[in-house]
Every structure is written in structure tokens, then in C-alpha cells.
Amino acid sequence: MTQTTPDDLRSVIAGERLDRADKPLISTNPARTGEVLAEVSLAGRAEFTAACRAAKEAQRAWAAVPAPIRGQVIGNIGDLVAANKEALARAVTRDIGKTLGEARGEVQEIIDTCEFFRGEGRRLYGQTVPSEMPDKQLFAFRNPLGAAAIITAGNFPVAVPSWYIVPALLTGNTVVWKPAEYAASCSWAFYELFSRAGLPKGVLNLVYADGEETFAGLEQALGEGLVDKVGFTGSSAVGTRIGELCGRHLQTPCLELGGKNPMVVTEDADLDLAVEGALFSGFGTAGQRCTSLGTAIVHESVHQAFLERFAAATAAAPVGDPTRDVLYGPMISERFADRYEGYLDWISGHHRVLGSTATGRITADAPREGFVGDPADGLFYHPVILAGVRPEDRVFTEETFGPIVGVASYRHLEEAIELADLPGYGLSCSIYTTDPKKAFAFRSGIGAGMVSVNNSTSGAEAHLPFGGNGRSGNGGRLSGLWVLDQFTRWQSMNWDYSGRLQKAQMDVVEIDADLGFRLD
């Protein structure tokens, strides 16, 4: 089918679109801010709670659908996304300014996730466990949790939602999805594809709402017992609030939060490869990934050589129109552009700024050499490399969501690991080295949930656990088999067919053994 983005975007609860708002949110293209993409009617807390109620009411019937059939629905979703890959990728690029190449990769992530879980409906294995008693069998089953509220950010507006929604649906849960309102158009396209794959009404509900109304609606829904699982991807500050709220209801949310991801470059590293990795992970998506490179921690013996090569590569990289061949496009929205300008205030006198002809927004008065397109069209910002970053600097300890990368030095690997862990985040990290011993020492010492060797800090695959620790999350993992633990709970069953009451730990066969025996 040909996917078109509607101008009038509204929430959908149990298959019914809500009324149009009197003053809808105007959604624009960040690469061409004069281009209006859609008018988005934002729902309130009552509508969010109503969506949770609809999901709860639909859940038992959906869970009763045999798991292999639910798997077929997931397969249908994957096939629909594959058939609409280019249209969905272009919707992502229009919505958030991600380059077409990266947007296509993001859509492929949905397809890969569906491909993985397509067959999982036939493999939702439980366990048969031997009993300590005769004529008795023990079993363990995976059961769905119920209704899940999924709240996602807009920097990966279609890939990350699929990491939650696909396994949630596969395992028999129903979903209320609250996408980022600034990525409304591609979220609608995502919903349209999912809704045509065979999902009954109420199984997947879409709610456009701002953050405070969503939080209030979630609080109400949890209080009424309508939500059994919360998944959230976004900032550490908001994740903390959601974690506190869920804790009051004895629930453990899946929290995927921010990152200050380090890249360690050892004295034996392939510097050209390390620079390539730093360029992509530091400035891809304009540095607006939770896995973006925060600080390159470089051995003192190669620090200057790395810095020179990294600065030259960054200065030469094309920036601009995301539909063309560029390293990155605009900031996602005005909100993120304003926040990024605040991070630039953290630049201090002891820092040396490299990588571009200016800092801040790219304009006619502050041009970027080699800019692709017209910078006046959108929210385009200069890439920034900060040399001389110190552990006490805010640019070292805090997440900086935007195209800014710090560079620090170290003398021995233990110091590099200590510096890498210092900010307290623990999402992603990488090490560039040709020494396997250093690679494994780094892996065992670092606190991050994901480690790359001779690869960038960004780049997840659909069948490997994704998630962070510390300020980056509460230990939950998405992707692969590991995400099943987020959307199912184990139920044990014992079946005694002996015809008599056998009491565990009491009516147990006793074995005679001569444990004092010794060989001469």
C-alpha cells in the first residue's frame, strides 16, 4: 500500500479516533521548519487512563489467542514494515531530521525484531522440573503480565517502540503507546502498519499527550489497577519519577535512560578506525542518541595524534540536508536545540574547541564550511570537539544531548576504566585496541551494560540484550530472549498424581550412604 501521513493526527483508543482538539500541536520538519507536517490533537490524563482501561479489557481475549497465531501477527507486522520500508524511513527523516541512511537502518531494526519474534510464538518455552518425590511433576510457565504502558522518546521514534511493543504483543499483553509528540507523523505511520497486521481492537492503543498529562494519567491508571507493566525510554530525570511512581504500586518498570558513553583508545589502537568510530557515534543523529559518544578517553602517547585526526575528520564531514549524503542533519526539535545551547555554556577557558568554524547554530553569520543545503531552513548546529576535558567538568559528568564530544587522556588502563565509570551512567562504551588482554580487562572492569571492541558506542542488534545500569536504567534489558522477562512472569505448578498427600521437604526418600569411607 502507499503510506501517506495524515494532516490530522489524533489518539486511537480501542480502534476509535478521539475528537480533534481545539488547538492542536503544530508539527514541523526540523530540517525545514517552515514545512508543517501535521496538526496533532493532544489527549489529556483522562484519555490516557481510558486507553489503559481499554487495553486491560482487551487483554484476556488477546492472551487466549494461541501463541503461534500471535507470532503470525508479528510476522505480518514485519512483512508490512518491509513492504513500506522506504516510506516509513522518509517519514522518520521528515519528522526528526535523521539522515535517510540512518532512518532506513532504524526501520530495518523493526523488521529484524519482528523476524526474531515471528517464530518465538512457537518457542515460548516453559520448563518441566523433576520432583524430589515419586509420582509428582513440577512445571514452570511464562504468563503475560496484562496491560503495558509504553512511553518512548523521539530520537529513535519507530525502532525503540518496536523493542517494547513486539515482544509485549507476542507474549499476550496489550499495549498503550505514548510516542513523543514531536515525532507524531512517523508514529502514526508505525501505528497504521501495526494495526493492519491482524490486531483486534484495544490490543494496541495510541495516545498523543505531553509529558505531564501522561504522568498524571499513568498515576491514575496504576491507582485503578489498569497497568501491569511500564516501559519508558527517555531522560534519567523523568525515568526516576516513573520509577518512584511504579515503586509505590510494587511494580518494576523497564527504564532505558540516558548515557554518557565513553570510548577508550589504547596506545596500540588503529587510530584511523577509532576516529571513524568516534565520528559516527559522536555526531550521528546530531549526537542525539542515548548511546552517543560522550567522552573519548585516549592514551597519552597517542592523544595528540588521535585529536588531530578526529578534528580533521569532523571538520571535513558534510552536515546539512538529511535527505542528502551528510553525517548528520538538524536537531530533532526546538526543545532539543534550546537545551543543547545550554550545554554549550559548559565550555570553559581550559577547553580547546575543534571540529568546525564556530559553535552553536549554523547561520550566515556563523557558517559551516561545506554545509549541504541552506542552514536557514532548519535547526542545524556546528559539531564541537572539546579538548582538555577534565573529570570535574560538567561536560564530562553529564549527558550532553547534541553534537558535542569531549576528549580526555589517561596513562594506564585502570585509570581509563575509572574515568569511564566516573559519571555514573552505564549504558554503552567501547574500547579500541589490538590487544585482546586489554579488551577483556576493560570488559570485566567497566560498569556499562553494553561493550563494543573496535566498534562505536552506537549500534545494537535485535537479538542481543540492550540496556544500561546506574543512571542509564534499572537493569532491565530489551531485545532478544532477554526482553521476555520484562513482559512475562513465571508461574510454577506442581502436579501430584500419587493419590496421597506428599509433603515437600518432609516426605522425602532417604538415601543411606557411608560418607566416612576412605581409600587406603
UniProtKB/TrEMBL annotation:
InterPro entries: Ald_DH/histidinol_DH (IPR016161), Ald_DH_C (IPR016163), Ald_DH_CS_GLU (IPR029510), Ald_DH_N (IPR016162), Aldehyde_DH_dom (IPR015590), ALDH7A1-like (IPR044638). SUPFAM superfamilies: ALDH-like. The keyword DNA repair does not apply. Keywords: NAD, Oxidoreductase. Transmembrane segments: none annotated. Its EC number is 1.2.1.3. The active site is at 256. GO terms for molecular function: aldehyde dehydrogenase (NAD+) activity. Pfam families: Aldedh. Residues 25-492 form the Aldehyde dehydrogenase domain. Gene3D superfamilies: Aldehyde Dehydrogenase, Chain A, domain 1 (3.40.605.10), Aldehyde Dehydrogenase, Chain A, domain 2 (3.40.309.10). The keyword Magnesium does not apply. PROSITE patterns: ALDEHYDE_DEHYDR_GLU (PS00687). Homotetramer. Belongs to the aldehyde dehydrogenase family. This is aldehyde dehydrogenase (NAD(+)). It comes from Nocardiopsis composta.
